[in-house]
Specification:
two-stranded antiparallel ribbon; 9 helices; single chain
Length: about 270
């Protein structure tokens, strides 16, 4: 009796598709597979940001905008020139949920609810630095490339399974295989990106003159505000306690970077 396609066959199909992608290296030295150009992603990011601003109320001018802009400006000055010189844009959205994001093309959004969780400029720099880290590391490109490759791999394997095992084999790959890919490939990959952005963001804030130890306080506040959550293996984000421990362990090694920034005159005064 012939067996059914197994998980390793799915993984092999995805790997073959990924082999056709461009291989790059992230800011932390991790290998990445990208299917799209920066220009393509930046165009999509700009369009999405414009649509968000049209649909959701934003804060016009005032102290909150100036506060966010000050933090963003200090952080992006620590990026390489090719990233620093992009057309960065910020917006503060009227939304009580404590959230922030950054899109390809340098579009940064912060919800008003974030100010209740980020108690000072250093904590705000921690969350914005994390989001800028996603852009700097091309995480959006990486994620959509991985998702596109997975969909393509499932389609190819579905056709192969259908020819060999009939309709039931095809259904197993295209339906059950989609769930297996989500749990086995896409979500753990997202946790890798989140952890990498924590590392990039914490270093950026230290280089900009924000205290990297405050990243720990920020995520403790976030954990307190978020309440219950799904198990780590079903989440796109690291377990909060694991994240806090990693930030706490990294902070001492970044203190010399922080102190050097202050000695060099990088002492942001953004408020509150």
């Amino acid at each position: 009796m012939q067996g059914k396609p197994t998980a390793w066959v799915l993984a092999l199909g995805v790997a073959l598709v990924l082999a056709g992608c461009a291989t790059t290296t992230s800011p932390t030295g991790r290998s990445q597979y990208l299917m799209y150009s920066d220009g393509q992603l930046e165009q999509m990011g700009a369009q999405a940001f414009t649509e968000m601003k049209a649909k959701q109320k934003t804060v016009s001018g005032g102290q909150q905008n100036a506060y966010v802009q000050c933090v963003v400006d200090a952080l992006i000055q620590q990026l390489p020139a090719e990233w620093r010189d992009r057309r960065w844009e910020t917006a503060v959205f009227v939304d009580d949920s404590p959230n922030a994001f950054a899109l390809p093309g340098g579009k940064v959004g912060v919800n008003t609810g974030m100010f209740k969780v980020a108690k000072n400029q250093d904590q705000l720099a921690a969350v914005i630095g994390h989001e800028i880290g996603h852009v700097y590391a091309r995480h959006t490109n990486e994620r959509v490339s991985r998702q596109a490759a997975t969909s393509t791999g499932l389609a190819v394997l579905g056709a192969v399974a259908g020819a060999r095992y009939g309709q039931s084999g095809s259904d197993l790959v295209t339906q059950g295989g989609g769930a297996a890919a989500q749990l086995g490939l896409l979500l753990p990959f997202s946790r890798t990106q989140e952890t990498e952005s924590d590392e990039i963001g914490q270093r950026l804030m230290a280089q900009a003159g924000f205290d990297p130890a405050q990243a720990v306080g920020l995520w403790r506040n976030m954990l307190e505000a978020s309440g219950g959550r799904s198990p780590e293996w079903l989440s796109t984000h690291p377990d909060p306690q694991n994240r806090i421990r990693a930030l706490e362990a990294r902070a001492p090694s970044l203190q010399p970077v922080f102190q050097e920034a202050r000695k060099s005159g990088r002492s942001p005064r953004c408020g509150p």
